[in-house]
């Protein structure tokens, strides 16, 4: 709960340069001397970014860059990453979003790393764990702010044998959003930010506004899309090119699925193959999506160009086709237990302003409370019921799940494909049913991934025994 005065949303007055060549994320160097080990250090601390001509923006960064360095490991590897927290006076953690790590290596809020101290996270990447993961801080009460100030990075686990042709490349596109005051600083949250989650004025791709990429016509490209924004829903289409979905949060699908437009809610990922079959310009742009907005200042969702691709006249060398089958995905068996989680918002005016609650089953997060006890290795049916007026993207730590159905107003729909996911949007008024199994014991968080909602209490703990 938090009491705040109503405040106007500051409007973006700063103009950011557009059209620069898309930069690749800097790769985190592996310091291990032998194979099978990924060893490195991530240092979080203050840095200065230059988003707009002549303006210095104080941010937080991992190893000096935001988004953080790209981590690339291979399934079967052991990972040992030392986290050096050099953020002034703030505890932090590194949470390995979506990754099958032991509970005591998960960087959850119960396990803070004090300012000025180091800790090493170690875990093994099991066979079959190839996927598009990410990392970000998760300290109690500070997650949302540390992420919007710049702390988030991509962690790709590659398979030992990849069915996607190497000629397609493998390009990470990480979306963040930014709000800049006229002096270049990052303004504090307003009441609107706390209610809706903080939505910035500019959507950035790998830290750049509407960067460009040039490809020959006939080319196919593999993209990993990451929504690393605190609260912005991205409904996207690729004008002038054809999108095929090949993977989700937890890796490849069984078979490619053609897509017209896609919805990437906060924290979700998708892997795409995009075919550039005609010369000219192709652009990845946003479409309108009504995620439920409270109060004034609903940002314009539609018509933002995130990436411009120049498809040249030169024809690409012929590339192998996308295989029809990508990998098998086993179905999780019949659930032994079923649980229901009801998401609600409460808003009331009192003397000090608006009092808000973001609740799961009527309760706000309490670090000292266990909400649910589960058995390791047992399949459970989780029913996430959104009785609130906004969409809430649901995320659970420690495992990947399979969505089995969505229900809205009595209508049940099945997902178009079986997939491993760790984050799923639960639209307002909707119920999502999913199957999950936790294999490793210990406390695990589940929460709304609008990070301001997580911070205001929309989170619980399942203790796996
Ligand atoms: Cu991406 Cu609990 O977080
Ligand atoms: Cu939420």
From TrEMBL:
PROSITE patterns: MULTICOPPER_OXIDASE2. It comes from the Bacteria. InterPro entries: Cu-oxidase-like_N (IPR011707), Cu-oxidase_2nd (IPR001117), Cu-oxidase_C (IPR011706), Cu-oxidase_fam (IPR045087), Cu_oxidase_Cu_BS (IPR002355), Cupredoxin (IPR008972). Residues 47-161, 197-278, 352-465 form the Plastocyanin-like domain. The keyword Oxidoreductase applies. SUPFAM superfamilies: Cupredoxins. Keywords: Metal-binding, Oxidoreductase. Gene3D superfamilies: Cupredoxins - blue copper proteins (2.60.40.420). This is Multicopper oxidase family protein.
